[in-house]
Amino acid sequence: xxxxxxxxxxxxxxxxxxxxxxxxxxxxxxxxxxxxxxxxxxxxxxxxxxxxxxxxxxxxxxxxxxxxxxxxxxxxxxxxxxxxxxxxxxxxxxxxxxxxxxxxxxxxxxxxxxxxxxxxxxxxxxxxxxxxxxxxxxxxxxxxxxxxxxxxxxxxxxxxxxxxxxxxxxxxxxxxxxxxxxxxxxxxxxxxxxxxxxxxxxxxxxxxxxxxxxxxxxxxxxxxxxxxxxxxxxxxxxxxxxxxxxxxxxxxxxxxxxxxxxxxxxxxxxxxxxxxxxxxxxxxxxxxxxxxxxxxxxxxxxxxxxxxxxxxxxxxxxxxxxxxxxxxxxxxxxxxxxxxxxxxxxxxxxxxxxxxxxxxxxxxxxxxxxxxxxxxxxxxxxxxxxxxxxxxxxxxxxxxxxxxxxxxxxxxxxxxxxxxxxxxxxxxxxxxxxxxxxxxxxxxxxxxxxxxxxxxxxxxxxxxxxxxxxxxxxxxxxxxxxxxxxxxxxxxxxxxxxxxxxxxxxxxxxxxxxxxxxxxxxxxxxxxxxxxxxxxxxxxxxxxxxxxxxxxxxxxxxxxxxxxxxxxxxxxxxxxxxxxxxxxxxxxxxxxxxxxxxxxxxxxxxxxxxxxxxxxxxxxxxxxxxxxxxxxxxxxxxxxxxxxxxxxxxxxxxxxxxxxxxxxxxxxxx
Length: 670
Description:
Blueprint: H1 2-28, E1 34-37, E2 51-54, E3 60-70, E4 73-80, E5 86-90, E6 103-113, E7 123-128, E8 133-138, H2 142-145, E9 151-156, H3 161-168, E10 170-174, E11 183-190, E12 197-208, E13 216-219, E14 226-234, E15 270-279, E16 288-294, E17 297-304, E18 312-320, E19 327-332, E20 347-351, E21 355-362, H4 366-369, H5 381-399, E22 413-421, H6 428-438, E23 445-449, H7 454-459, H8 466-475, H9 521-529, E24 548-555, E25 558-559, E26 564-569, E27 583-586, E28 592-595, E29 604-605, E30 611-612, E31 628-635, E32 638-645, H10 646-654, E33 660-666, E34 668-669
Parallel strand pairs: 21-22, 21-23, 24-33
Antiparallel strand pairs: 1-13, 2-5, 3-4, 4-12, 5-11, 6-9, 6-12, 7-8, 7-11, 8-10, 14-15, 15-18, 16-17, 16-19, 19-20, 24-25, 24-28, 26-27, 26-31, 29-30, 31-32, 32-34
Helix pairs in contact: 5-8, 9-10
């Protein structure tokens, strides 16, 4: 009997020690509620904890499938009508924080149905807690094999990657500083050339060098989630509103009362920010604190009451206005006492002089968007809005760098207001009436979010939404760079096409060494040439042309010396290049050809600091439709040609060559 009691004591001791050890590990995660698990994380019971991402706005559904089993167990299933990169990831809160530094591999099984067939391999991306990535591209035909039966996927992790990649057939791309000790989530990607497939996932787990399954932690989402969503500025003054455009020239000019209206608060004027805070979680929050700092100084401290799920409260922050890019930071739970779904949305940051964007949304989009977690790892509609728009644009501004813009675009954006309406009609005039009624002229940009685009927004909740950010950039005055381009049918002189590429997100220009998605050089020039002002104009930075401009022409690396040339311009009215030429003349011995300045409707400077003056382009259309020159010459009876667009002139101006600029153009044989 004593021996039995002693045995029970040993067992109990072991259990307590294990619980204590687990508690220590959990303590490292703060006070987070969750559980330690050793089953595969692709088990069907975790279907609600998987997320998906996608690049072309298709329909995606993740579910548990009890009909398709492996080893007698239900599996995880993805149904999609995507034709491009589509992926699943785990966990959807992106807070795994699992240590894989001493793990050997991730192992799992795939099976698929795909009427288009497969080729190649999936690719796997691990993301650490700082957002850095380790990508593994497969070098075999495992997706093809998965059409027939369950196919094993073994992906190396942790140390000794070169040897393990060679053994298992992968190519690794590891971001600098990537931390295998703190992995936030894993993504499994697949692509097909045709739309629509089903993929099943089973048995995915991490294995150590002894062949054992590594335990992992799954946080609970039955928690509160406080998010500082956005801040309204009161009063918010009007953006620039241009005069009615001349039928021939769309001149961005303030006239009449618009020329004297107030666009910024006065220096020292008392303003206030209405800071919105939402409990976007699934449980009631506890009371906590709120702190707001501007320019590094505390301007407001407050107590935040307990909030029910989806409840919103507002805290008023008073500040005496100072013109300039002062950092605003409003935070909740500053002592990190609350256990929440995510902490990534606990602080709202923006620059006080940022461009202010507003969103007009159909009420019906909120619920479906809150079913899909977002960049913040939350299930919050406002976080989705901020992550998909404001955060993406600000990131692009900072990282798209050029020789004339070593710090990228020196502007920023913030979310100033979300309006919820019953319906957004598919009619521009009717939407205009809605905007007028809401008084949206005070914002620098506005975009509309109807239910009919819900799949795109949900699918791209964790990826870069190219179309959305492209259109928001138009709101900030950046034009479609493809306006410079031309197909052969529109070139009536020699039927040669022009495409400046490789283009940025505005459909053209050049991105240089920047990783796509990126703004092109002329886009960044446009932002920086108009910084410090309000928006409301479009493409006025195309006025920023040096006063003297010289072409230097060459063929096969040799100057085009003493040759007759003719230069044609694309028409802003027809979109075609046709005779007669706008310039004719002869190059000098070094291939140089000065471009004469042509008259403009009038000389003036826009409210954003861009001066229209006589220049080689005549009146530069602010949409960019006449921003292309075709250059031709004949040498020994053979025609040669080249193109130059107005974007190069704007970039030279941004480089500081405002008085005199030189452009090299290489001519090609026709």
